[in-house]
Amino acid sequence: MPCADAGFVNPLSPSWRATAGTQYLGWENFASAYGGANLPDVIGSNNLGALYNFGTGAVLTSTQNIYGTTGPLFISMLGGMATASKNPLEVVLNVSAAGSVIDLNSIALTLMDNGGGVLRLNPRLTEIRSDQPFSFGGRVQTLAFSWNLLPNLIAATQWQINFSGTGPNTSLDAVSLDMNFIPTPGALSVLAMLGGGVNCGRRRL
Fold this sequence. Notes:
Blueprint: E1 22-27, E2 49-53, E3 58-60, E4 66-68, E5 74-80, E6 90-99, E7 108-112, E8 118-121, E9 125-133, E10 139-148, E11 158-164, E12 170-180, H1 185-194
Antiparallel strand pairs: 1-12, 2-5, 3-4, 4-12, 5-11, 6-10, 6-12, 7-8, 7-11, 9-10
């Protein structure tokens, strides 16, 4: 049964969510504003990841959002693989935030193996799925980011996603992360196109 998309407006919800060979994590209410682990709380989530804010001066709002009072939020999502050791073939991230907007250039997915290999990838697709004025200043946005990867790029056992705000007064409302380890028919054509020119070699961080 598909998971709810509370907190988002017009999110990018993959058709393969909650099917075999996938993993889903959703955050709607946060428990730690700074430094502590926020575990997924949306029904249907697995327990293979956590979300942290390392931007100082953040507080929890009455609606359990993470709000950056004096500086930007610096969000780091960390977790492991439900299907190790291999990289996911499709990844979809949704972010809902209000106030100062999320820095679209800050989004990165990093995959790591047990031998010290690191693969850092920018999104293949970035979408502003909803954008409205915020009554307290700034915007209310739902953002979607997606990655399509070739198989066997890295024997990944860990993943990390980072993103940040553009300044103070960002309120992080909701986050969802989907990973698919089994190619869908639509993904197969994308992978075929990528096969001739993928540009995402290994790096050391």
